[in-house]
Structure formats: C-alpha cells, structure tokens
Write a structure and sequence with these properties.
Largest sheet: 8 strands, parallel, barrel
Structural class: alpha/beta
Number of helices: 24
Number of strands: 16
Radius of gyration: 25 Å
Shape: globular
Helix content: 40-55%
CATH architecture of the largest domain: Alpha-Beta Barrel
CATH class of the largest domain: Alpha Beta
Strand order of the largest sheet: 7-8-11-12-13-14-15-16
C-alpha cells in the first residue's frame, strides 16, 4: 500500500469527505474488491459515466461511504484472462464483468485506451477545440466543490474552459511523499507576515488530475463533447526549483496546459552593469544567429529595437529562457513516454511575463514571443503586466483599451492570445474592452472569486451546520485581521489595516480606529458579518487547512490529520449550500463569457433563466449531461 493511502486510512481521512489528497481514488482496494464480489451492497454505479474503448464498455462505481471507486469493464471479447486485462489488479465480479481499482496508474492507462479509440473524446483534459485561443481559467483556491458548476456552465454555454487550474507547488502538493516526510518548502505571504507550507489547499496535483476526470464522468459531462483543459499554473522555472523539476514534471503529466513562471530564475539573475558589459554577455552566451533571428522577427512587427534595452532584457531573461527550454523538453518527453496518441501528448503553453518590472512594453512582449518561437516553444497565451489589482476593476477603460491594443498588435502577429492574470473582480466594461480588442482571443484567469462564492453560499444558507461553518470562517478572518493590525511587521500591519479600513469605510463607519488594539477590535466586531468585507476576502483561503480552524500562523497549511480534518468540514456542506455555491459560480462564468463575447448573449440569457429555476442540487446536476 502506498504511504499516502496508509496515512489517510490510519486517520480515517476517506475520499468521500476528503478527496484528491492521494493520487488514487481507491485507498483500500482489498475491501472494495471484496464488497463488489459479494454483490456490491453500499455501492453506486454512476449511470451517466459510461463510455467505450476498443476493448469494451466501462462504467464508474463508487462505495458511497468511503468514496473508493473502481472501473467496471465489460469486454467485447471475453475470456482473455489476466494477461489480456486492460488495467491492473482486476477482479471478476460476475456476469463477465471485471472491476479495476481507480488508481492513478490505471487512470493513465485508461487515457491511452480512450484516446486510441476516439482521439476527440472529452473525458480527459486536452489541448483541443479552441482552448489554445480562447478560454476562461477557473482556479480553485481551496476545494474541489466547484467542479459541477464549471461543468454545468461549459455544458449550458457549449464553451470549453480551463476547468481545472492550480498553481503548483504553491497551492497543490507536488509530491505526497515529500509531504508525509515533512520536506515541503514554504511560500512567503507578506500580507500575513509569515511563510505557509506549499500545497496550502491540501490536495495533490495527481489527486486533482484524477478527481476532475471522475467528476465529469459522474455528471455525464463527457457526453456533451465539449473539450476542456487542465492548467498547471505558475510552474516555477529555475532558482531553488531546479533540484525538483523532475518531480514537478511527473506530477503534472495529465495537465494539458502549462504556465511557465520565470520569476524564480529572474529573482536570482544578476545583470552586469553598463551597456558594454551587457553587450559582451550577449555575444558570449547567446548564439548570434538566434539573436539575429529574433531581431528580424521583432522588426517584422514594425517595432524599433533599442540595442541597449534589448541587451539588458536578454541579460536578465536569457538564463530563465534556457531553463524554460529544458523544462519544456521534459514536459514533452514525459507525455511521449506516458501517452500513445497525439491528442494525449499535446499541451498548451502560456508565458507569464507580468513578473517583469513595470508595465510590459510591446517590445518586451515581441522579444519574449520571438525567442520562444525560435526555441520551438510556440506560445498560446502570454500574460503581460497591465497594472491590474486583484479583485478590483481597472479604473480607466479608455486607458485599458490603449494598453491592450498595443499588446494585441504584437500578439496577433505571433498567433498568441493574451492571458489576463488577476482576472477576477473586474467590471463588465473592463471585460468588454478585453473581448473587443482581442476578438475574444484571450484567457481570463480567475481564482479568488470562487472562495468568495462559497462564503456567500454559506452566509445565505438556512442549514444550521452551514451557518456554524460560516461563523467560524468569518471569525477566523477577523482574528487574522486584528492580529495583523498590530503586527510589528510593517507590511503585514499595513495590509491588515487597509483591509479593515476598506470594510469600515464601505459600511459607512469611521476608519480611524487604530489608536489601540481594543478600539480596533471594537470597531471590527461591531460590523455585521459579511463575505463582502475585504478582510474576509483576503484571508479566507487560509482557513481550509488551518489546524483546528485556529487563526494562528503556526496552524496554517497544516498537512497533518488536524489540517485535513478541518478541510473535511467543507465537504459536509448541505445540498442547499452546495446549490447556492454552484449557482453563484455558474452565474459568474456566464457573466464572464457574455462580456468577453466568448458565448452569444442569447445563450447566456438562456443559461441565466435555467439557473433561476433550480430548486435542488439534483436538478442542477441532472442538466449537465442534457
């Protein structure tokens, strides 16, 4: 038994209440196999999950109490025995049917079987359809509970999306063995004045990869034929990540979309001072033919290159570009080794350059795209810096239009779309400008919005347990804000006070409350609890893996049983709470699709009408497969 499965069973952390921690969706195959062979009491066959491969028909079955899953297989030509079994560790369960455990290894084998039979199948994430040109990136900052809502929106709008998006290893555990052995690194969070362990959401990258496939089978989404992708976001290039890039590559093998984040290598790159030294570096380290090829490509975009600025940029970015090429090759090789079809091996690329200093110039965008093109890493999306603030509208639509037009003038000449990072919380007019300028050749990356929607769902739920969870969650953010407001760390104090000030000001209350801790506490506690308060919005994602739900820095990102027991509270949310949550997410995705013109207005209006009519979660789920 894998160590992670042993750990989860030891602490009674079952998939039904705590999914996607293990790469496997079956922790105890011996018990599930015995149950299936004895008639399957307590199990549910997901009737919409069926699909076929060349060898036969498949269906997903689950032990509802534990969440352990298996693949039921009915061969077209029975009688080949174990030697001809399509997956491993199978058992006969009667009627010519075999059952195989839902292990990660079996999932990889099954992907090949599916795509060899039907390359256009949409069971697994792909780079197909229009996903490399236009998409909405749906990030998950705390649980997997948003998946049915995303599937509903894709189905209703007939629009493929980046339906699974996570920063790795920042948000997802990149290696469960490293987690169990206490080898996870930490991530600095300056606004709370501390470092939090990597993988602060708790689930593993393989577990998320596995779970997002099973979710679409359970709802029958795969029957809609809408392609979707999985983005391994902010894949860190260089710096301290050199030593574990092979593990990062292996964990992301099912991702069909990679975002390259050069910032770790850029942070440690020292650029020689002076034009002469920089020119000498370029001459000594970068192939002259490559430099000329890039200059010619940029000139073809009607951009005038300043030689000194070009050399300075290349001195800064060349070490990272070289490492990006190495990583790109590893991603490609991993897919060639694991998968047998072009559809299974293909992946999209995004280059994140919003970490470079200042607003991104068209010249910088052109140079970076030209180098990636010359190095045979064609970019589908590039993310320049537009000066966006998280969860805040851009204040000047005319200025935004000008900024985007300059970038789009370059991107379209490389066949690249624009990735808008920090995409949540912008105005309808902002999104309209983005869609109009690019002709909807864009990606809007969103994440924090979906945690907020859970807060709204719990806040409005009449279910007692939902209300208890909401009150504990809100209290957690209040305490973190109050601790931060008196912190000796200048950044933490400044941010906490700005969050509190914003909440008080919007409530029409005096904001001069920082004379002493008692005055601050009195003012904050006088506010009616609300998911609209900025301090709740900024701190909320840290609650999911906070041991015991405690607002203490040492409790955050806890990968012991205590942290996962806290996470399980969200998977106990009532059907009322889940329906509120799903409808809120779906409405937001419809809003984004309409304002960016990714979906026709009439289709969006019809989707909103459907949402207005749902009274139960069962009705909502039933419409996904249509």
């Amino acid at each position: 038994m894998k160590p992670i499965n042993k750990f989860l069973l030891q602490h009674n952390l079952r998939i039904a209440q705590n999914p996607c921690i293990s790469p496997d969706f079956c922790l105890d195959w011996e018990a599930l196999a015995a149950k299936l062979q004895a008639g399957g009491a307590g199990t549910t066959k997901w009737t919409k999950s069926g699909f076929e491969t060349a060898a036969g028909a498949w269906q997903l079955i689950e032990d509802i109490a534990t969440g352990d899953c298996a693949w039921l297989f009915q061969a077209k030509a029975p009688g080949k025995g174990k030697a001809g079994a399509p997956l491993t560790d199978g058992v006969a369960v009667g009627g010519g049917v075999q059952a195989f455990p839902a292990t990660f290894e079996n999932l990889l084998r099954l992907k090949n079987l599916v795509q060899e039979h039907n390359p256009a199948a949409t069971i697994f994430p792909t780079a197909g359809g229009k996903l490399g040109q236009s998409t909405l990136g749906v990030g998950a900052r705390f649980t997997t509970l948003h998946w049915p809502a995303v599937e509903w929106a894709m189905s209703a709008l007939e629009l493929g999306m980046t339906a699974n998006q996570n920063s790795i290893p920042r948000e997802l555990v990149y290696d469960v063995n490293a987690m169990l052995e206490g080898r996870l690194d930490t991530v600095p969070f300056p606004f709370i004045g501390t470092n939090v362990p990597e993988g602060h959401q708790g689930q593993s990258v393989e577990g998320m990869s596995h779970g997002c496939v099973l979710s679409k089978l359970k709802t029958g989404f795969h029957h809609r034929g809408v392609a979707w992708s999985f983005n391994a976001d902010h894949q860190p290039i260089g710096g301290k990540f050199d030593s574990r890039e092979d593990q990062l590559v292996a964990g992301c093998v099912l991702a069909s979309y990679i975002t390259f984040d050069l910032s770790p290598e850029l942070a440690q790159t020292k650029v020689s001072e002076g034009a002469a030294a920089q020119r000498a570096y370029v001459q000594a380290n970068v192939d002259a033919a490559l430099v000329q090829q890039v200059k010619a490509r940029v000139a073809a975009c009607s951009l005038a290159l300043n030689e000194e600025q070009f050399n300075a940029l290349l001195c800064y970015t060349w070490p990272a570009l070289r490492k990006m090429k190495v990583r790109d090759t590893k991603y490609r090789t991993a897919r060639e080794q694991a998968f047998t079809t072009p559809a299974g091996r293909a992946f999209l690329r995004e280059l994140s350059i919003d970490e470079l200093p200042g607003l991104t110039t068209p010249e910088t965008t052109a140079i970076m795209l030209a180098f990636c093109e010359a190095l045979e890493m064609p970019i589908n999306f590039i993310a320049p810096a537009f000066g966006f603030q998280k969860n805040m509208p851009y204040p000047d639509n005319a200025a935004l239009r000008t900024l985007i037009e300059k970038q789009w003038g370059v991107c379209r000449q490389f066949g690249a779309s624009i990735g808008f990072h920090s995409g949540s919380g912008k105005s309808a007019e902002n999104y309209q400008v983005m869609g109009q300028v690019t002709g909807s050749r864009l990606e809007i990356k969103t994440s924090g919005r979906y945690t907020y929607e859970m807060g709204r769902a719990l806040f409005t739920s009449k279910h007692a347990a939902d209300q208890a969870l909401w009150k504990d969650w809100y209290r957690f953010t209040v305490e973190l804000a109050l601790l931060g407001a008196v912190s000796a760390d200048a950044t933490e104090q400044k941010m906490a006070r700005s969050f509190i000030t914003d909440a008080l000001t919007k409530a029409g209350k005096p904001a001069d409350v920082f004379a002493n801790p008692a005055a601050t506490r009195q003012a904050v506690e006088a506010l009616p609890p609300s998911p609209e308060h900025m301090f709740w919005f900024e701190y909320n994602f840290l609650f999911v893996l906070a041991a015991g739900g405690r607002a203490e820095k040492k409790a955050l990102g806890d990968h012991t049983a205590a942290g996962y027991q806290q996470r399980a509270r969200f998977y106990a949310v009532s059907d009322e709470g889940r329906l509120n949550f799903a409808k809120g997410i779906a409405r937001y995705l419809v809003f984004l699709a309409e304002n960016t013109a990714l979906a026709p207005a009439a289709r969006c209006a019809a989707a909103r009408k459907l949402l207005d009519g749902y009274r139960t979660m069962a009705d909502f789920l039933a419409d996904i497969s249509r």
